[in-house]
Design brief:
The complex is a heterodimer of chains A (268) and B (180).
Chain A lengths: L3 H18 L3 H12 L3 H20 L3 H39 L8 E10 L7 E4 L12 E3 L4 E8 L4 E5 L7 E5 L5 E5 L10 E8 L9 E4 L11 E10 L5 E8 L8 E6 L1
Antiparallel strand pairs in A: 1-2, 1-12, 2-5, 3-4, 3-12, 4-5, 6-7, 6-9, 7-8, 8-11, 9-10, 10-11
Chain B lengths: L1 H17 L2 H6 L6 H11 L2 H17 L9 H13 L9 H25 L9 H31 L22
Helix pairs in contact in B: 1-4, 3-4, 3-5, 3-6, 3-7, 4-5, 5-6, 6-7
Classes of the chains: A alpha+beta (268), B mainly alpha (180).
């Protein structure tokens, strides 16, 4: 049986947790960030160790494999150089046309590479922690992506780290567009909440739209949070919504959220 | 021992946040804190269980999207439940440790989920959550006896060895009576 002082201990801790739960949003977020900084050294150490192991394993790679990879990279480099030349030409043309029509010039993306420090330990959210913070000009709602596609948005920013909500998290919804048909929808967590991190749901798509598996889904730019045209994924399956008012599609994400080690942060 | 327990809690939260192998294999992440709170409640008493619940819950929430304090209450209730019945629990029996670990690891996510709904959050819960719950419960239950074993060994290693009670009789100091 519990004695009175022991009940007091439980009661006191219960009260503290109620106070923590009822803290104002900003104060709670600041406190959380301050507490999470306790883990920064060990997360840094773990990442450095992993990198050292990777370097060590790369150091013992056979010469033939390295030469084959070098050849492949040289070929890819030539292709990219050619593509860059074409893009530069198109871009120049675009700038001139925009000037002629009087449209505002597009500004280039200012990206910074961030390392993934940690993942959400629970099963109810999809999030990760990166090693860039307010020191590196990261702010709330900063867009996070990889060369393959959109990853999510920054939710909380500390001095040296930030938390990123991934696509498929209930608090990360994105306005999206089917590239082919230009029809819009919203990217939300997968309907039946399957544990597959590579699938999300595109919902609120017009029921008259011609959705087909394989179509490319990109950000629509609506809402002003995510720039237009960032690849999200491809439609894997189409089905009507429960009440038939609109269509829904399961989207296979382009970014490999499962094995992210580095991400790009789109700085303002 | 307090230092070892704090270090273990810190390491458990770190491993849960950074180790991806288990999640990639099963689609869910294990949670070792409910098993730990069972150990603390049975071995260290109610006050230690309350403090452990607070520290472990806050550490866990600091690296999670959970609102701060969400993980404290389930751990606290488990600790309190175990302390209430601690006199009736055969804490040295492995079977009892596994059953307590299973119950604690099964109840913790349910309490957490209810609390999140109560405070207006919308966690990812669906058909697959049942599978996740089964995995979390089984792993938590199976690993609870490990805490008892590990901390039992640490206790032996770090504390002074208990001396056998000396009796008044010592054979080397016995006065031999006889003829000389």
């Amino acid at each position: 049986m519990l004695k009175k002082p022991h009940f007091l201990a439980f009661g006191l801790v219960f009260l503290i947790s109620l106070v923590l739960l009822n803290l104002p949003g900003k104060a709670a977020s600041q406190l959380k960030l301050a507490l999470s900084e306790v883990f920064t050294p060990i997360f840094g150490l773990a990442t450095s160790t992993r990198q050292a192991v990777d370097h060590a394993s790369a150091g013992v790679m056979p010469r033939s494999v390295l030469l084959a990879e070098l050849g492949k990279l040289e070929q890819e480099n030539q292709h990219l150089k050619l593509e860059l030349m074409q893009i530069a030409d198109v871009s120049r043309e675009n700038v001139q046309l925009r000037k002629t029509v009087g449209w505002k010039q597009r500004t280039g993306w200012n990206v910074k590479i961030a390392r993934v420090l940690a993942r959400e330990p629970g099963n109810w959210w999809k999030a990760l922690q990166i090693n860039l913070g307010s020191e590196d000009h990261v702010t709330t709602n900063t867009v996070v992506l990889t060369p393959d596609g959109l990853v999510g948005r920054v939710d909380q920013v500390g001095l040296t780290s930030a938390r990123v909500l991934l696509l498929g998290d209930p608090n990360c919804r994105v306005s999206a567009l089917i590239e082919e048909t230009r029809e819009g929808g919203v990217i939300a967590p997968s309907g039946d909440r399957i544990p597959d991190e590579t699938l999300v749901e595109m919902t609120y798509v017009s029921r008259h739209s011609q959705l087909k598996p394989g179509q490319k889904v990109i950000t629509s730019g609506l809402g002003g949070l995510f720039p237009k045209g960032i690849p999200i994924g491809r439609i894997a399956e189409v089905h009507p919504s429960d009440h038939g008012l609109f269509k829904e599609a399961r989207v296979q994400l382009s970014a490999h959220l499962k094995d992210l080690e580095e991400v790009w942060v789109l700085l303002p | 021992m307090t230092f070892c327990l704090s270090l273990t809690t810190y390491t458990v939260v770190f491993v849960e946040a950074s180790y991806r192998g288990f999640r990639n294999l099963t689609g869910t992440q294990f949670d070792l804190l409910p098993g730990l709170v069972v150990y603390v409640a049975l071995s260290k008493g109610s006050r230690a269980a309350a403090i452990f619940s607070l520290a472990a819950g806050i550490l866990y929430d600091s690296v999670s999207v959970n609102p701060l304090g969400t993980s404290v209450i389930p751990l606290l209730l488990i600790g309190m439940g175990v302390c209430l019945k601690s006199e009736l629990i055969l804490k040295d029996q492995r079977y009892a440790q596994v059953v307590l670990g299973l119950v604690a690891s099964g109840v913790a996510p349910l309490l957490g989920w209810l609390l999140l709904l109560f405070i207006g959050q919308e966690p990812l819960v669906g058909v697959s959550s049942f599978w996740q719950w089964c995995v979390v419960t089984s792993v938590g239950g199976m690993l609870t006896p490990v805490w008892f074993k590990v901390f039992g060994l640490l206790q032996v290693a770090l504390n002074h060895p208990s001396m056998a009670e000396s009796s008044a009789f010592r054979s080397d100091r016995q006065i031999q009576r006889g003829r000389h």
